[in-house]
Design a protein that fits this description.
The complex is a heterodimer of chains A (267) and B (339). Chain A is mainly alpha-helical. Chain A has a single domain (56-266), classed as MetI-like fold (Orthogonal Bundle). Chain A has helices spanning 2-23, 55-91, 93-108, 111-122, 126-153, 156-163, 168-204, 215-224, 234-237, 239-266. Chain A is elongated, with a radius of gyration of 22 Å. The model of chain A has no long low-confidence stretch (mean pLDDT 85). Chain B is 76% helix and 0% strand. Chain B is flat, with a radius of gyration of 26 Å. The two termini of chain B are 16 Å apart. Classes of the chains: A mainly alpha (267), B mainly alpha (339). At the A-B interface, helix 3, helix 4, helix 7 and helix 10 of A face helix 1, helix 6, helix 9, helix 10 and helix 11 of B.
């Protein structure tokens, strides 16, 4: 529990710092304001990039973009994975066989090449990126949910409720959903971190939305500035987004793991 | 009794074969889905490459006339019905003809073949080094709970840091400072190597950082698998028996424990190809290493759809096949457990 709080507090601190950066900080994340390639100063906390845009403002906005992408993807994947997994586990038979096959198919596909190809053909917008990542995240959730539903289905109290004439929706509301939900939530929590990472990977390759300044895109822009290898600009241009990305992903992963332990302990 | 035993074995063989067949069917279906996806996505997507003006800035721009359009469509076989196009594509692909790359002005298979060895080199060395390092670290922890918990903590930390970010950090922390570590590429450009040894050293020098970044990310997976399978085996009776017999510690470690732990690790090896291919593609772009990942990215950047399809088909097929092998290995393991 204390560990869980620790990681949550780290995330909260990041949110506060970047909240200041995107709402009260006097510089814009999109417009060049000032001379290009300035060192960190009181005026610009992390200096400016080659176009003169403030890096700290970009970093702050990038946090909310990343978190937005992560959470939206997770919610879509949660709905898709949860409903498909529950239907598959509950209905059984041929439907289950077919759905399981699709789940296994999605799990065995290499994600990055498919994401690159879909992104290349359907255009690079933030909506597409979210849709693609969600399309690849539901399968893992569905697999877990399906297994749990199968396990619940074997319980005698479910048979009893059914023999009393309980409808599917009643069973779903009273038994299935309440038992599956914690598992669903934790698995969706892992999706948040993974989605942030995948968006960053795509953005790093320059294949995400070029108008949305996520952390991956800042890294991409910094790396494509040739002077970065010979000067020490990387210390405030490249290092902060990389560190923030690693820290966020790590915190989210640890929160998911701690929450999982919590639930296993409760069982 | 003998008949009974035979029946049991026959049942297991039958069951194993049935599961093997179902895995194989899943593999074939997955391949089919990927193949159809690869064929239909460019045909379903909005837009038309012929409508796209390919003139570069500074050149006189003019659209294609109706005749030119028809000629081009006939040239690429796009005037035929979709079914015929599909059959032609399959026929071509069976002859290893994946079309012409627009970017490199060469056939796709030529481009892939010239870059594939570098990707295979990076991936194979990453997986092998990760396997041995992971196994070694897991063996190191046997019987030393304190050391084991330290290694476990470090590995769980490492597992969460994506390879391409490690790559970026390594690039700026080491490559920019250490003079003999190059920033990018696979070989020193325009340099004539005097001997095989010097050539090999050049290859090694250039691949050191990409491989290190990938290994740091892949190694934990192998470590976790090795650790769990070692711990299950350590609790087995035959290990206890070996200790009781008074066998030397070394023999027990290598002959009894290691050999039995090898199969799950091998399964993990083939399963890791899928995760490794994504990591390799990213890391190749960090270090500008001329492998398939770099080709794929360049192809996307220059809208070279034919090349994208070729690389995509190849990489997904490799991953599907290796995860099929991993499934088969796991199946044999399960059979052993059933007995």
């Amino acid at each position: 529990m204390t560990k869980l709080k620790f990681y949550l507090i780290i995330l909260l601190i990041m949110a506060l710092i970047f909240g200041y950066g995107s709402f009260f900080y006097p510089h814009s994340a999109a417009r060049p304001e000032g001379i290009s390639l300035q060192r960190p100063s009181k005026e610009h906390f992390l200096g400016t990039d080659d176009l003169g845009t403030d890096i700290f403002a970009q970093l702050s906005k990038g946090f909310f973009i990343s978190v937005f992408i992560g959470i939206t993807t997770a919610i879509i994947a949660m709905f898709l994975g949860g409903s498909i997994g529950m239907v598959s586990g509950y209905v059984g038979g041929k439907t289950d066989f077919l759905i399981s096959f699709v789940i296994n198919l999605f799990l065995s596909l290499p994600q990055l090449p498919v994401m690159i190809v879909v992104g290349a053909f359907f255009g690079q917008s933030i909506g597409n990126v979210i849709a693609i990542i969600a399309l690849f995240s539901w399968a893992a959730i569905a697999k877990v949910v399906r297994a749990k539903t199968l396990q619940i289905k074997r319980n005698t109290y479910l048979h009893l409720a059914k023999s009393y004439g309980a409808s599917f929706f009643y069973l779903f509301r009273k038994h299935l959903f309440t038992e599956v939900f914690p598992l669903l939530l934790i698995n969706s929590l892992t999706v948040v971190g993974r989605a942030i990472l995948q968006e960053a990977s795509l953005a790093f390759l320059g294949l995400s939305d070029p108008l949305t300044r996520s952390w991956g895109l800042i890294i991409n822009k910094a790396m494509s500035f040739t002077g970065i290898y010979y000067t020490d600009y990387w210390q405030w241009w490249l290092l902060p987004p990389v560190t923030c990305l690693v820290l966020t992903i790590y915190c989210l992963r640890m929160i998911a793991r701690e929450a999982e332990n919590l639930i296993i302990g409760a069982d | 009794m003998i008949i009974n035993n035979w029946n049991k074995t026959a049942y297991h063989t039958w069951r194993k074969n049935k599961q093997l067949l179902s895995r194989f069917i899943i593999f074939l279906c997955s391949f089919l889905v990927i193949y159809l996806f690869n064929f239909f996505v460019p045909r379903l997507m909005p837009g038309d490459p012929f409508a796209h003006n390919t003139a570069q800035s500074g050149q006189d721009m003019h659209g294609l006339s109706a005749e030119e359009l028809l000629r081009l469509k006939a040239y690429y076989g796009l005037d035929k019905p979709v079914r015929e196009q599909f059959i032609n594509t399959v026929k071509g692909n069976l002859k290893l003809d994946f079309g012409q790359s627009i970017l490199y002005k060469k056939s796709v298979i030529e481009v892939i073949m010239s870059r594939l060895p570098w990707t295979v080199y990076i991936m194979l060395s990453t997986l092998l080094i990760s396997l041995f390092m992971g196994l070694f670290l897991a063996l190191l922890g046997i019987g030393k709970p304190k050391l084991d918990s330290y290694i476990l903590k470090i590995m769980s930390l490492l597992a969460e840091i994506p390879a391409f970010l490690i790559g970026v950090l390594l690039l700026f922390l080491f490559a920019a400072k250490v003079s003999w570590l190059p920033l990018a590429g696979n070989l020193t450009p325009f340099y004539r190597h005097t001997g095989v040894l010097e050539y090999l050293f050049d290859v090694f020098r250039h691949s050191l950082l990409p491989i290190t970044a990938l290994v740091l990310n892949m190694m934990p997976n192998f470590y976790f698998t090795a650790r769990t399978s070692l711990q299950t085996i350590l609790r087995k009776e035959y290990v206890f028996n070996a200790h009781a017999k008074g066998l030397a510690e070394k023999i027990i470690h290598y002959k009894y424990i290691l050999l039995n732990a090898l199969f799950p690790i091998l399964a993990r090896f083939f399963l890791s190809v899928g995760t490794c291919i994504g990591g390799t593609m990213l890391i190749e772009n960090v270090f500008a290493y001329p492998g398939l990942g770099k080709v794929l990215r360049d192809a996307v950047m220059y809208r070279d759809y034919i090349l994208i399809q070729g690389v995509f088909l190849l990489s997904t097929t490799v991953v599907l096949f290796s995860s099929f092998i991993s499934d088969v290995i796991n199946l044999y393991l399960q059979k052993d457990k059933l007995r």
